Amino acid sequence: MSRTNVDQNEIAKFEALASRWWDPTSEFRPLHDINPLRLNYIDERTPLAGRRVVDVGCGGGLLSEGMARRGANVTGIDMGEAPLAVARLHGLESGVQVDYRQTTVEELAADPDHAGQYDIVTCLEMLEHVPEPASVIRACARLLKPGGDLYVSTINRNPKSFLFAIVGAEYVLRLLPKGTHEWKRFIRPSEMSDHLRQAGLDIHDLTGMTYNPLTKVYRLARDVDVNYLMHAGKPSGE
Ligand SMILES: C[S@@+](CC[C@H](N)C(=O)[O-])C[C@H]1O[C@@H](n2cnc3c(N)ncnc32)[C@H](O)[C@@H]1O
């Protein structure tokens, strides 16, 4: 049922690159560069130590390991075999424990052992790679305990994001391989807000992430025109 919400072409793109996931000079450099920013964003809003977390679309495990290092009990899920193999191998080397599983979030949320069991669900830089992001968000919401927190990040859809995230990042600066992103799959914050509310969540924050190509530095910012993060919460007592 739920595997219909997986685009195999998208999975294949990450399978092909997976061996370089932990190389900070590779195609994954942008994820390495933004990792401390997003880890701090999450940890400041929902202190990670001791929390039960699912990282949806965890890839090679950059965020999953980062959260586990800060004391969270992390399950990382992805549909890519090679990224998960890289994540497991890296965990063996680093000694940081994460439970990696090949599954969709819809399948995990349909399992009564997992539904309603998590303090935090993260789904970063993944929603722009799936056919139906609203289905992913509904499943993330189902995994949360009452009072739990969901963190999502993606790319806005407007002329500026086409220029910066596709022309700039893929063709001019070559930060990402050509074809990494499809503009029509980008998600406006208003659309994301609708998906979150329809999943029964309250929206707590919207923050932009900007990149300065001269200094090569990413920052959290008010500008949500291109990359952005959102924090939403499941009402307590539901
Ligand atoms: C850009 S990477 C982001 C990795 C990680 N979330 C991060 O930000 O460091 C996108 C990941 O989403 C995974 N993915 C894409 N569609 C998926 C789906 N339907 N279910 C699970 N994982 C998926 C890909 O295999 C890939 O590892």
TrEMBL record:
<keyword id="KW-0830">Ubiquinone</keyword>
<feature type="binding site">
    <location>
        <position position="124"/>
    </location>
    <ligand>
        <name>S-adenosyl-L-methionine</name>
    </ligand>
</feature>
<dbReference type="GO" id="GO:0032259">
    <property type="term" value="P:methylation"/>
</dbReference>
<dbReference type="InterPro" id="IPR029063">
    <property type="entry name" value="SAM-dependent_MTases_sf"/>
</dbReference>
<keyword id="KW-0808">Transferase</keyword>
<comment type="similarity">
    <text>Belongs to the methyltransferase superfamily. UbiG/COQ3 family.</text>
</comment>
<protein>
    <recommendedName>
        <fullName>Ubiquinone biosynthesis O-methyltransferase</fullName>
        <ecNumber>2.1.1.222</ecNumber>
        <ecNumber>2.1.1.64</ecNumber>
    </recommendedName>
</protein>
<comment type="function">
    <text>O-methyltransferase that catalyzes the 2 O-methylation steps in the ubiquinone biosynthetic pathway.</text>
</comment>
<feature type="binding site">
    <location>
        <position position="78"/>
    </location>
    <ligand>
        <name>S-adenosyl-L-methionine</name>
    </ligand>
</feature>
<dbReference type="Pfam" id="PF13489">
    <property type="entry name" value="Methyltransf_23"/>
</dbReference>
<dbReference type="GO" id="GO:0061542">
    <property type="term" value="F:3-demethylubiquinol 3-O-methyltransferase activity"/>
</dbReference>
<comment type="pathway">
    <text>Cofactor biosynthesis; ubiquinone biosynthesis.</text>
</comment>
<dbReference type="GO" id="GO:0010420">
    <property type="term" value="F:polyprenyldihydroxybenzoate methyltransferase activity"/>
</dbReference>
<dbReference type="InterPro" id="IPR010233">
    <property type="entry name" value="UbiG_MeTrfase"/>
</dbReference>
<keyword id="KW-0949">S-adenosyl-L-methionine</keyword>
<keyword id="KW-0489">Methyltransferase</keyword>
<feature type="binding site">
    <location>
        <position position="57"/>
    </location>
    <ligand>
        <name>S-adenosyl-L-methionine</name>
    </ligand>
</feature>
<feature type="binding site">
    <location>
        <position position="38"/>
    </location>
    <ligand>
        <name>S-adenosyl-L-methionine</name>
    </ligand>
</feature>
<keyword id="KW-0831">Ubiquinone biosynthesis</keyword>
<dbReference type="GO" id="GO:0102208">
    <property type="term" value="F:2-polyprenyl-6-hydroxyphenol methylase activity"/>
</dbReference>
